[in-house]
């Protein structure tokens, strides 16, 4: 099928989006002059202070190159090699980091648990903790939660506090993978502190690359004791940037004027728009109610293949007919409409083939309303 419109943006990942204007401007400003290396510059200092202001607490902040390092090094600050980490079975730390958490912790085991919509619950965690406590089994030391989850759902403050209550009762630390933390926050409409340290989170992998910066995540310790010697841990892992200001400056651009939440809220709105548009297409089934910036939809495999051939990029992560469509800070309503129009055009013949034959009612030629 010949394309009638150019495809400049896709729905594969919010990682695919470019640098947002605020981050780009800050990066250019930081490039104007020389600056002290290894984090001794004013940009890094300002970014750390902005993060402390954002969370309304005196947290310890460290910048690393990517989310996998942030997650692995954060968990290594909680766990030793003989410990285990409870996480959801679809969590990024389990499925998409090539054993990074195990590598950085020196061998700590990830124990994967089930849960509806990508979420862990106090009941599931309590059950896992009761299964093995003997010397021959890794000692559970941490819980890793993803906010927003891999299924596009969001933990509420109450849900997080309930999990934290179980964690404290059992001496466990809580790590939060916040690769899409801004999207979760925009969805909930609560202060950042309400779903982090006030809810019992010890350390956050604070993501920004999915929200418009070119590279770099922040490891934010609300539990100061866990941050002890983290700078040496990061250096050994090859995560100490010599020109740190180029990682830190985009954060200043995002946080200083509130752009991080505006961009996340926009991505969430585009997600809801996409979901509404797809629900109107016969034969398309939404798998989850969108809460952040991801739409999960079930489509015939042949339709998915046709969309790919037309040039649309998106993933089928949990099965060959289950598509994940991610909206980003730069997704536009016209992007949504173009995708929906192509999908609707492909689904129309399928819907006609599946539609049962109608038998006209006697005495009337009008359809029932």
Taking Cα atoms only, what radius of gyration do you get, to the nearest Å? 23 Å
Tally of helical runs: 13
Tell me, rounded to a whole number, the average pLDDT: 93
**CATH homologous superfamily placement of the largest domain:** Type I PLP-dependent aspartate aminotransferase-like (Major domain)
SS-based structural class?
Answer: alpha/beta
Give the spatial strand order of the biggest sheet.
1-7-6-5-4-2-3
Distance between the termini: 36 Å
- Poorly predicted parts: 355-369
Largest sheet, in brief, is: 7 strands, mixed
Using DSSP, what is the number of strands? Answer: 10
Globally, the shape reads globular
Question: What is this structure, in a nutshell?
Answer:
Helix content is 40%, strand content 14%. It has helices spanning 21-30, 42-55, 67-78, 92-95, 100-105, 122-131, 157-169, 181-188, 230-236, 245-256, 259-279, 301-309, 333-354; strands at residues 60-64, 83-88, 109-113, 139-146, 173-178, 203-206, 217-221, 285-286, 294-298, 322-326.
Give structural notes:
This protein is α/β, with parallel strands linked by helices and 369 residues long. It folds into 2 domains: 21-258, Aspartate Aminotransferase, domain 2; 260-351, Alpha-Beta Complex (Aspartate Aminotransferase, domain 1). The protein contains 13 helices and 10 strands. The chain has helices spanning 21-30, 42-55, 67-78, 92-95, 100-105, 122-131, 157-169, 181-188, 230-236, 245-256, 259-279, 301-309, 333-354; strands spanning 60-64, 83-88, 109-113, 139-146, 173-178, 203-206, 217-221, 285-286, 294-298, 322-326. It has a 7-stranded mixed β-sheet with strand order 1-7-6-5-4-2-3, with helices on both faces. Strands 8-9-10 form a 3-stranded antiparallel β-sheet. The longest helix has 22 residues, at 333-354. It is globular.
């Amino acid at each position: 099928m010949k394309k009638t419109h150019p495809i400049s943006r896709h729905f594969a990942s919010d990682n695919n989006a470019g640098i947002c204007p605020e981050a780009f401007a800050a990066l250019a400003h930081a490039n104007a002059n020389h600056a002290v290396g290894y984090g001794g510059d004013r940009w890094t200092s300002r970014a750390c202070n902005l993060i402390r202001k954002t969370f309304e607490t005196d947290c310890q902040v460290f910048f690393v190159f990517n989310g996998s390092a942030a997650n692995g090094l954060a968990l290594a600050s909680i766990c030793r090699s003989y410990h285990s980490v409870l996480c959801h079975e679809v969590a990024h730390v389990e499925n998409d980091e090539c054993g990074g958490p195990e590598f950085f912790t020196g061998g700590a085991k990830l124990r994967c648990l089930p849960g509806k919509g990508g979420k862990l619950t106090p009941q599931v965690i309590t059950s896992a903790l009761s299964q093995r406590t003997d010397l021959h089994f890794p000692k559970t030391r941490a819980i890793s939660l993803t906010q927003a989850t891999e299924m596009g759902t969001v933990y509420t403050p109450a849900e997080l506090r309930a999990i934290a209550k179980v964690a404290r009762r059992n001496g466990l630390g809580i790590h939060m993978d916040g690769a899409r933390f801004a999207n979760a926050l925009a969805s909930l409409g609560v202060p950042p502190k309400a779903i982090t340290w006030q809810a019992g989170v010890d350390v956050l992998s604070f993501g920004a690359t999915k929200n418009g910066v070119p590279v770099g995540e922040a490891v934010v310790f609300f539990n100061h004791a866990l941050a002890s010697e983290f700078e040496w841990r990061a250096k050994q892992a090859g995560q100490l940037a010599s020109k740190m200001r180029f990682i830190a400056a985009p954060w200043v651009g995002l946080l200083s004027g509130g752009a991080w939440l505006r961009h996340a809220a926009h991505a969430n709105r585009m997600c809801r728009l996409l979901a509404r548009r797809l629900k109107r297409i016969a034969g398309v089934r939404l798998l989850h109610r969108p809460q952040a910036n991801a739409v999960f939809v079930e489509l015939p495999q042949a339709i998915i293949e046709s969309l790919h051939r037309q040039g649309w990029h998106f993933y089928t992560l949990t099965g060959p007919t289950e598509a994940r469509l991610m909206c980003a800070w730069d997704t536009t309503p016209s992007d949504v409409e173009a995708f929906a129009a192509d999908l609707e055009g492909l689904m129309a013949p399928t819907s006609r083939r599946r539609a049962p034959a109608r038998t006209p009612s006697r005495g009337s030629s009008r359809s029932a309303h």
